[in-house]
Specification:
With about 650 residues, this protein is α/β, with parallel strands linked by helices. Helix content is about 50%, strand content about 5%. It contains 24 helices and 10 strands. It is globular, with a radius of gyration of 30 Å. About 5% of the residues have low confidence. This is ATPase family associated with various cellular activities (AAA).
């Protein structure tokens, strides 16, 4: 892979120059703990009675750090790694892989540290300090630059280590906890603290090879998270974050404090459905087909999708409908389409579902699961599709006493991820929330769904004939009769009728607002009149806020992008998928449709209808519950009085 204009090469010779120093750290060094509790991990077991596991080493702690909180502990990572061998005296291939990955990650981190020092005044200040000529006025700057270098080296070490080990991860997962011995006095000490703690984690968790890899990778993730959090308040980091660094031999790209995960596809075991096997649900099916092709326009070099830049990309959507109307079938259809397109183009595709089994009774674990789910799907190195089925059971309403702490954690994570201050929509992934009871979803979380897919199932006589024929299969001799099979599922004709139906509101509450505003201003044919209609909706439902307007305008932009990306573009990637980003933008721009008043009115009504439907259902459910409870109270009181009199 060649370098792009915004990438800097981290030269291989600069990395290999640090191999000897990295190997020395693996063999052993002394470290006096300063933050973490010392003695939390046991020594490496002796190979034979009286023969120590490793030689004693002279301390390499930098001279800048003179205060010791505890006695130094010898860290011998190579010996620690081979302990996880179930009694085998020979190093296993996986153990060798872990050791080489750690050495490589240390060398990359040191090389990045050298590059950072050369791009800042740090190199000159180091030389001046070594010669005793450091001006007193620059001591504060020197300390800040050393801290910045330590943060860069620590994060790059964790980033490279997690990246190199990701192909070797299996089904085993390990929770290693937060990194404690995180030191930022200088780069050397930062790595000493990190390797000391890695040694401790391996002693605690790595009982076999699978746990060895899982523990090392989990520690690398935690180290990255700690470094990224500290970097938010640190100075002098622009020379590192402003550029992209490329390690060609490992196909590794370093982008500031962003993890560089391996672009691996998830193995899908679901049963895929063809579009003609989805009966009814015309608008939902239509938008799912469009979205699947939109995702494929993502440019892996620019890490941006033309649809996300031009408008019309659906980042989050809500699919709601009664039980049995086809939400699961819709997921199977969309995942199948994306999987087929990605296989044809050679793109990595990652599908993941967040289900009720991800809610954990352990405090904080549910939030961690939700964050890991979001990060896996957001990975800019893959095409991602994340689904949250039965979200009303998974994400709790804020203030709802019946929601568990884990459900509240999940709600907070999803709200931040889907429309938070740090949310970046690259256009490589989409999240679908599905529910039979969307009125039970927290209002703010539900409004973060930029598009609404009404999953209403079969509606017409033709729909029911089609679904009966589909589910019966072909192993029968019952005649079809006077019917054009699947003709009603022709998407263009069905969708046109579905959109036209939203020219007027369908919910009674919204229809009253429509009639009142129409009587005041007449036909809704200007922005001012449309704005008056929106204000009328807000007066009827105070939850209709600025986010609702954004969702409506996003939906209108989707309609402006309402064109069929030719199937040939998906079948022959050279026609579109493998073109450069600017060419893709120009090709899409040529197909864009003008925005009309009819589009805006239809999308306002579609969105507002769904909100009124949710509100009405929510109120009715609450009222029904209260009525049932009052009936029980009356029956209980009557039975109690009868028993008392008897």
């Amino acid at each position: 892979m060649s370098l792009t204009s915004d990438q800097m090469e981290l030269r291989e010779e600069a990395i290999r120059a640090h191999y000897l120093a990295a190997a020395a750290l693996l063999e052993g060094f002394d470290h006096a703990t300063r933050v973490a509790r010392a003695g939390a991990h046991g020594p490496v077991e002796e190979r034979s009675p009286g023969i120590p596991a490793a030689r004693r080493f002279r301390s390499t702690t930098p001279g800048l750090v003179t205060r010791r909180v505890s006695r130094p502990d010898g860290v011998h990572l190579l010996d620690r790694i081979t302990v996880a061998d179930d009694g085998d005296t020979l190093t296993s291939p996986l153990q060798a892989t872990v050791a080489r990955a750690i050495r490589r990650a240390i060398a990359i981190a040191f090389a990045m540290g050298d590059t950072y020092a050369e791009r800042t005044p740090l190199s000159d200040l180091k030389r001046a300090n070594l010669a005793g000529d450091l001006p007193p006025a620059r001591k504060s700057e020197f300390a800040e630059l050393l801290t910045a270098e330590a943060l860069v080296v620590a994060h790059v070490f964790g980033n490279a280590l997690a990246y190199l080990l990701s192909p070797h991860l299996g089904a085993v997962s390990v929770e290693v906890g937060e990194v404690e011995e995180f030191l930022t006095d200088n780069a050397q000490l930062a790595l000493h603290g990190a390797l000391w703690e890695l040694d401790r984690k391996l002693a605690q968790f790595a009982a076999d090879d699978a746990q060895l890899v899982a523990t090392t990778a989990a520690f690398a993730e935690q180290l990255m998270a700690k470094a990224a959090a500290r970097a938010q308040a640190a100075a002098h980091l622009a020379p590192f974050t402003a550029a992209t660094w490329r390690v060609e031999a490992d196909d590794l790209t370093l982008r500031g404090f962003t993890p560089a995960a391996k672009a691996r596809s998830s193995t899908l075991t679901m049963t895929f459905k063809k579009p003609n096997e989805v009966v009814g649900n015309h608008i939902a099916k239509y938008q799912a087909l469009r979205l699947a092709k939109m995702l494929m326009a993502y440019d892996f070099e620019r890490r941006l999708n033309p649809f996300a830049e031009l408008g019309g990309f659906i980042f989050t959507f809500m699919g709601d409908g009664k039980p049995g109307t086809g939400k699961t079938t819709l997921i199977q259809m969309m995942a199948g389409l994306i999987d087929e397109y990605c296989r044809n183009a050679g793109y990595p595709f990652r599908y993941q579902n967040f289900g009720i089994d991800n809610i954990d009774s352990y405090q904080g674990k549910s939030g961690q699961n939700a964050k890991a789910f979001v990060q896996n799907v957001l990975d800019p190195g893959v095409i991602g599709f994340g689904t949250i089925d039965d979200i009303d059971q998974i994400a709790g309403k804020r203030g709802d006493r019946q929601s568990s702490a884990g459900q509240q954690e999940v709600t907070a994570v999803f709200m931040e991820a889907f429309s938070g201050a740090n949310t970046v929509v690259r256009g490589n992934c989409t999240f679908g929330m599905f529910s039979n009871y969307p009125e039970n979803v927290d209002d703010a979380l539900r409004q973060r769904a930029g598009a609404r897919f009404l999953v209403d199932g079969p509606q017409t006589r033709e729909d029911y004939i089609d679904i009966l024929a589909l589910l019966l299969g072909k192993r029968h001799e019952i005649p079809l009769g006077d019917h054009d099979l699947y003709a009603a599922q022709e998407i263009k004709r069905a969708v046109a009728a579905s959109f036209a139906a939203h020219g007027r509101p369908q919910e009674a509450g919204l229809a009253q607002v429509w009639e009142r505003v129409a009587a005041q201003v007449g036909p809704l044919d200007t922005i001012a009149k449309l704005g008056t209609y929106l204000k009328g909706i807000q007066e009827a439902d105070e939850r209709f806020t600025g986010r609702a307007i954004k969702n409506i305008t996003d939906a209108v932009k989707v309609r402006a992008m309402d064109f069929e990306l030719p199937d040939e573009w998906m079948e022959n990637p050279d026609l579109f998928l493998f073109r450069d980003y600017d060419t893709k933008c120009a090709m899409i721009e040529e197909l864009r449709r003008p925005i009309t008043v009819e589009m805006v009115v239809q999308e306002i009504n579609r969105y507002a209808d769904s909100e009124f439907r949710y509100a009405d259902k929510s109120d009715e459910v609450a009222i029904d519950g209260m009525v049932r409870e009052m009936g029980r109270m009356d029956a209980a009181k009557k039975r109690y009085l009868e028993g008392k009199d008897g």
